[in-house]
Write a structure and sequence with these properties.
GMP Synthetase, Chain A, domain 3, Rossmann fold, five-stranded parallel beta sheet
């Protein structure tokens, strides 16, 4: 149809031959780029508008997909399998501008983007360069819109479910390190977009490592960002007791209404305790299916991965593995010190640095015990009106039954060496040079240097005012003897362990 509404011929009359050559692929492509759009005016009359369109070139799109697929293949070889599965694989290529050497990657949410930028941005950039032989700049966008952070109007109804959340267990009070970074990032992503990804989120690890803290932090964050969301937090014991009560009183309707219909986010602590309880597992199985099918978030904690929980039904294990499983490991020394310092700051406790380091050295696997020791120290200092000291910390740990690693001094080491080698302190401090004396003397110098902060001149002074070069020669001599004499090495190692732990 032309612009006056007449029919426009699209080819030569029947039976005639066109003088134009047959259109090739490029001619057809150019022709297809011009489309005649019928626009209906206010009076219903048609008019013709020509619009030049530039649809994406399928060949270019395929090349772009190949580029990103090859980049993923390169990343798969250089990234840990778990990180690739949870952080790299969900990335999709949104746009590629080959002329400007710029790529836009689409990720599930802003937490995912932040984690990638902090941990794998350079790896992605290197893989792109390896694949394309060009330096690409990288941009990100999220597949889900940013959460609506507009404050809720004052007339909105209060949260219909008031979970029993611990006020201090929030993301901003969680002191983490490499041991818990993965779990914390996943927890924040779930709190930001509950039900959208990582459903269920399963956190596992030893006692007192921060799993419960993260569980409560998710609840707080969801309620702050979405005041109308209904958050239910329970321990597995409470869940079991609620179920028993409902069965006994014939009120399963109330039980299901509370856990299914009146719940948007379900948080269950220590889920391993439902193992071996058939009716509880049956009800949990149906509850899980109902919530998951409604895109409601489920977060669970346990002391072990689902597959190793004895007495847990296979169908329940399968459901628990549908989402993301994160382990929380014991914190390293630096993280333990940071936890103590943060806790002391929050509680208004003046904690000397040497005491913080001492506690972090002694309590290595349980954050709850670490914080409990600090709480006892703070209470003791307030009650007796005295500052926290190292002696107070040692006494506290002894009272708690902890196996305290002794604070070693040069004198205590010298005394232990004398007992072990049947020599007297007078002989070791004196000038005598008999082998019966010189070897224990050099061993004492070696252990003092290894186990204390004593300087070389101070060690020499302890042994009759000897020069620091004498101490250096003694250290070298013992290193040689340890390498050449397994029996002596074993004897020294046994002595060292006794010094550190007796």
């Amino acid at each position: 149809m032309d612009c006056d509404g007449d029919q426009v011929p699209h080819g030569p009359p029947p039976g005639s031959r066109s003088l134009q050559p047959e259109p090739n692929a490029s001619t057809l492509q150019r022709r297809d780029r011009v489309q005649l759009l019928m626009i209906v005016g206010s009076r219903g009359q048609g008019r013709c508008v020509s619009r030049l369109q530039n649809p994406p070139n399928p060949l270019s799109r395929d090349l772009n997909l190949d580029l990103w697929d090859n980049t993923l293949a390169a990343l798969r070889d250089s990234v840990r399998p778990s990180d690739f599965k949870y952080w790299i694989k969900p990335i999709s290529c949104a746009e590629i501008d080959e002329g400007a050497a710029h790529i836009v990657l689409e990720v599930p949410d802003t937490s995912h983007e932040k984690w990638l930028k902090e941990n794998y941005l350079s790896a992605i950039r290197s893989a792109l360069k390896e694949t394309s032989e060009r330096d690409f700049s990288i941009g990100f966008r999220t597949s889900l819109p940013e959460p609506d952070r507009t404050p809720a109007p004052t007339i909105s109804a209060p949260n219909p479910v008031q979970p029993n959340l611990v006020a201090r267990y929030r993301f901003d009070t969680f002191v983490g390190g490499p041991n818990s970074q993965f779990a914390r990032t996943a927890a924040q992503a779930v709190a930001e977009r509950p039900g959208a990804q990582y459903n269920p989120l399963f956190l596992y690890g030893g006692v007192g490592l921060g799993k419960t803290h993260l569980l409560h932090a998710i609840g707080h964050a969801v309620m702050e960002q979405r005041p109308s969301s209904r958050v239910v937090y329970v321990s597995s014991e409470t869940f079991l007791n609620d179920l028993i009560s409902a069965i006994r009183n014939d009120r399963m309707d109330l039980f299901r209404n509370h856990y299914r219909d009146q719940c948007d986010v379900l948080l269950i602590d220590d889920i391993q305790f439902i193992a071996g309880k058939d009716r509880t597992q049956e009800e949990f199985f149906h509850l899980f299916n109902a919530l998951h099918g409604s895109h409601k978030q489920i977060v669970l904690t346990s002391d072990q991965v689902p597959g190793t929980i004895p007495g847990l039904e296979e169908r329940v294990k399968s459901r628990l593995g549908w989402g993301l499983i994160c382990d929380v490991k014991p914190p390293g020394f630096e993280t333990r010190v940071a936890i103590l310092e943060r806790k002391a700051e929050l509680d208004g406790v003046e904690l000397p640095t040497d005491v913080a380091h001492f506690l972090a050295d002694q309590i290595t696997r349980n954050v709850r015990e670490l914080e409990g020791a600090l709480m006892r120290l703070g209470a003791s200092a307030r009650i007796f009106g005295k500052p926290i000291t190292m002696d107070m910390a040692e006494e506290l740990l002894m009272d708690l039954g902890a196996r305290v690693i002794r604070r070693l001094t040069p004198d205590s080491i010298l005394s232990a060496v004398c007992d072990a080698f049947h020599a007297s302190e007078r002989e070791l401090r004196g000038p005598r040079r008999h082998r019966h004396v010189t070897i224990p003397r050099q061993i004492a110098m070696y252990l003092i240097r290894e186990l204390t902060d004593a300087s070389l001149p101070a060690i020499g002074e302890l042994f009759g005012g000897r020069d620091h070069t004498t101490v250096i020669n003694a250290l070298k001599r013992i290193e040689q003897l340890r390498a050449a004499d397994p029996a002596l090495r074993h004897r020294m190692d046994t002595l060292r362990k006794r010094l550190e732990h007796d």
